Amino acid sequence: MNIGVHWVETVGDDMTTKQRQARNPVLVDGGRERTMRAAYELFSRGGTRTIGVDAVVARAAVAKMTLYRHFPSKEDLVLAFLERREQLWTRQWLGEEVVRRETDPARRLLAIFDVFHEWFQTPEFEGCTFIQVLLEHTDVTNPVRLATVANLENIRGFLRELGAAAGIADTDAFARQWHILMKGSIISALEGDTQAATRAKEMGVLVLQHRGISV
User: Fold this and answer.
1) What pLDDT, on the 0 to 100 scale, is given for residue 8?
2) Residues 137-156: what's their mean pLDDT?
């Protein structure tokens, strides 16, 4: 997923500094946005442990000093990446797409796997960043691991909301069950099972039926 920088077109020769910045996004971000775009693309596919700042600098075409001016350490860059990943992947892509497709809460839960199925068929499928980063950082006190755990919990928060709207009583237990189906389907897709989301959806129907919900 590429992140664009938006700007507006201005008319006339007498431009203010803000107008010049608006026409040239590089002036606005001073290299920060280019660094973030590069980090997002590299970390999403290659993980945060093996991709170094040199690779990010090269992809962003910025000086290393520029990177460290905006992100004092690689850890700061990874934390910023995780924050953006949550915004773009969890909220803007998954959450908004599920809500757009269905109005019924139970069907929205199942729609997650429809969205996943389409994702699994694309060359852009890169797996779950949060799972990957979690496996890369085994120290339970590591700030990156703690942020990743929080990102995963926020996904379950979305599932709890859908579960509550569908009439499920124990929303926490339900969200954890549903999240297992989601994570399992992603891992299976990484193994090469492009129908993993369809299989997970079938199991999801059984989970809902077990809780008295027909879809």
Assistant:
1) 22
2) 96
The CA distance from 124 to 142, in Å, is: 29
What are the pLDDT digits (tens) for 81-95?
999 999 999 999 999
In this predicted structure, what is the pLDDT of residue 215?
84
Confidence of residue 30 (pLDDT cuts 50, 70, 90): low
Check residue 93 and report its DSSP letter.
I
Burial of 100 (0-12, 13-18, 19+ CB in 10 A): exposed
In Å, how far are 17, 23, 41, 150 from 28, measured between CA atoms? 10, 9, 21, 30
Distance of alpha carbon 98 from the chain centroid: 14
pTM: 0.82
Contacts 24+ apart (CB under 8 A), 157-166: 158/90, 158/94, 158/95, 159/109, 162/105, 162/106, 162/108, 162/109, 163/105, 163/109, 165/105, 166/104, 166/105, 166/106, 166/109, 166/208, 166/213
Contact 43, 78 (CB under 8 A): yes
